[in-house]
Amino acid sequence: MVLIFTYFFYCLTGFCDSTPRAIFKQQAPHRGYDISDDRRRMLEDLRPSPRFPLDSSSVRNGTAAPRAQQKGGTRALLEFLRIHPDVRAFGAEPHFFDRFYDKGLEWYRSLMPRTLDGQITMEKTPSYFVTKEAPSRVCTMNCQTKLIVVVRDPVTRAVSDYTQTLSKNPGLPSFQSLALKNATTGLIDTSWSAVRIGLYAKHLESWLQYFPLSQFLFVSGERLVSDPAGEMGRVQDFLGLKRVISDKHFYFNQTKGFPCLKKPEGSSRPRCLGKSKGRPHPDIHSDVLQRLRDFYRPFNQRFYQLSGQDFGWD
């Protein structure tokens, strides 16, 4: 999924010394460091993340917003937003708020691409959404941060997560043996990260301790596939951007099963996400999927209540 895209915006100059618009009534609780030897060494530190914890951030003058959700669509959202002339993106996942927080905010800021006044700088790190310490750390940077969370049906997300891991580890046990504690009782094993990540309500509750709901935008991973221009319109509005990204930028790739970007100016071919996106999922017994749907149902309902949005996963 994902999500949680999350994205967050922070000011690139003066540690967020500009004042963002007040967009909520309640008060969120308010909670540097030498840069590493050189930029090359910093980037070498950005090693691949573990499977858990799992989303992302974007930056604008004075405000910021994380998004999150591994296998939820955060990479697609990032790539789609990069079309916008007022958006600059850091391609790798810096993992600052979960893995490299001790390097300090100056290190994090130094990774970001240079921007002009008024442009947004973005990065995505899905694992922020499920990292216990991330909400307070983001709030310490700026409690006015805007948050974009990309989510998809947690059952589909778990299968997608498993599919990705299986492609790297063909000897992986079956999905059923990992998802169920016991095949007879059908109890779901919540210690498996692919299942645990989909408990969106529990993760969101942690973030809501520091940020009001008005600072979140929840993007549907399913609608990002079926109506990318529509979802991107909502994102652009939320970020205060002019609506530049529209239907003219997309076409549906039947082979991959998701939208791709039409041929950019100066390029010889259209731009699709890499071969790791759109992998065919393994066959999983319908009884196992149903048990997962039944398990997630109360958590989904709670997430709908917290987010104020019904995603229709049931």
Entry keywords:
alpha/beta, Rossmann fold, golgi apparatus, globular, 11 helices, disulfide bond, 314 residues, [heparan sulfate]-glucosamine 3-sulfotransferase activity, 12% strand, two-stranded parallel ribbon
Q: Would you write up a description of this structure?
A:
The protein is of the alpha/beta class and 314 residues long. Helix content is 32%, strand content 12%. It has a single domain (2-6, 67-272, 283-307), classed as 3-Layer(aba) Sandwich (Rossmann fold), CATH 3.40.50. The strands form 3 sheets. Strands 1-3-2-5-4 form a 5-stranded mixed sheet. The protein has a two-stranded parallel sheet with strand order 6-7. A two-stranded antiparallel ribbon has the order 8-9. Helix 8 runs parallel beside helix 11 (286-307). The protein starts with a strand and ends in a 7-residue tail after the last helix. 41% of the residues are buried. Mean pLDDT is 77; it is low at 1-70.
User: Could you say which structural class the secondary elements and strand pairing correspond to?
Assistant: alpha/beta
Number of E-type strands: 9
Distance between the termini: 16 Å
Which strand order spans the largest sheet, edge to edge or round the barrel?
1-3-2-5-4
Q: Which regions contain 5 or more consecutive residues with pLDDT less than 50?
A: 1-70
Mean pLDDT: 77
How many domain units?
A: 1
Query: Can you say what the CATH homologous superfamily is?
Result: P-loop containing nucleotide triphosphate hydrolases
Provide the β-strand percentage band: 5-15%
Tally of separate helices: 11
Q: What's the order of the H and E elements?
A: EHEEHEHEHEHHHHEHHEEH
Output the CATH class name.
Answer: Alpha Beta
Radius of gyration: 19 Å
The CATH architecture assignment turns out to be: 3-Layer(aba) Sandwich
Portion in helices: 25-40%
Shape: globular
